[in-house]
Amino acid sequence: MKNILVVGSAGQIGSELVLDLRKHYGGDRVVAGIRKTKPSEKLLETGPCEVVDALDVKALTEVVDKYKIDVIINMAAILSGTGEKNPMLAWDVNMNGLINILELARERKMKQVLVPSSIAVFGPTTPIENTPQETILKPTTIYGVTKVAGELLGDYYVKKYGLDVRGLRYPGIISHETLPGGGTTDYAVAIYYEAIKQKKYTCFVNEGTRLPMMYMPDCLKATIDLMEADFDKLNYHCDYNVGAMDFTVGDMVESIRKHIPEFEISYEPDFRQAIADSWPNSVDDSAARKDWGWQPEYDLDAMTGDMLKAIGEKHKKGLI
Ligand code: SER
Question: Against a cut of 0.90, is the pTM above it?
């Protein structure tokens, strides 16, 4: 049996991952670590919630010992957009938070640490189409710099201390439960909300911007599948490419118009255009497919149908 702590449980991925993990492993075995926001009713009702800040080692250690935590998932991060506005904060949260968790996991001889990475590890000199697993990692954002360093640090703990550290390079994650915050790929979520609320959206990257993306159910599956994979079968540790779909903003508009024909779009690219342009169009995830059987389920139209339905229901209830 594992006792899991998810650091960053109020975020876009953490908030849904906790609920999914509780279904898999039992509510009382998955602690939702939240730094300052109030936990959602769903998180409070389904298992323990604790105030956890990866930068506060004393408090983190107390929670780990209280619940006999032997698996930590670190979902706390400052993303690419916010990172460019405050590089020191991104470095502090993404690097010092991570090393605090790795050190605690090493000291307590934990079973596993999961540290997500991102397509932000790539940069303008990386091959842009079907980006290989092993390739040039020269990102131009502070977020990308911390993610490359995080991958290397995780791999170091595997080699040096025999700690089981794993991670995957998430593409842009699209979901309707908790809004993302401060990322470049946030437009791919906002477009659905605005399609329902206003029937129009002004996008901060241009029509032809193509990025790898993934729908939340696939993101949860990828995360739990990697956690469950046999360690001996892993040829990589903290840096698995995972793909699901890739599309331009124009493709999204076409997909939304199948449901909302009057949907209007305009473009006002800002500083995030350059970030998006420095990332791949698509990734080669054959290592993940081979080593731990990764297989995504959702394509653009299936996701669009689902997103519009869920957000439409929220809108009807007056929740957004
Ligand atoms: N979604 C992230 C961002 O846009 C990428 O990992 O910053």
Answer: yes
